[in-house]
Amino acid sequence: MKSLRLLPTGFCLALLLSGCVHTGPELTLYQRLGGEPGIERIVGDFVDRATTDPRTREAFDGISTKHLKHSITQFICLVADGPNGYEGLDMKKTHEDAPVTEAQFDSVVELMRGALDNHVSTAEKNELLRRLASMKRDIVASY
User: Fold this and answer.
1) What is the mean predicted confidence (pLDDT) over 98-125?
2) Alpha helices of the chain — where are they, by DSSP H?
3) pTM for the complete prediction?
4) Is 140 helix (H, G, I), strand (E, B) or coil?
């Protein structure tokens, strides 16, 4: 009879302890985006959109899409805590000779959001966009 009274206590203790089980290291954003192959797919989708969209395509005239995809992939790998080495210029230097308007920036963000929607969950999309948002002041002319 005494053991039956301890049953609810034991059950509650087991339930509490199961919540304390460590399930392993948390995945980085880089891993949650699918590593470099996943980021390449996202960037490929994004660059294809940005280079053909009437609001933004002019900004990419004369730029090799292959080089652009590679550079943006490496940059996003860096931003997402990946192991890849980004060897390009920082955003301020990259855009100093190619001023970007706020309207163009907003269009590019919209296109990136669409590409992310095709490949990752809302949580990953929002985290990457949050990390990239701080770079607006280095990209938009006179911001």
Assistant:
1) 93
2) 2-18, 29-32, 35-50, 65-79, 91-95, 102-119, 122-133, 136-139
3) 0.77
4) strand
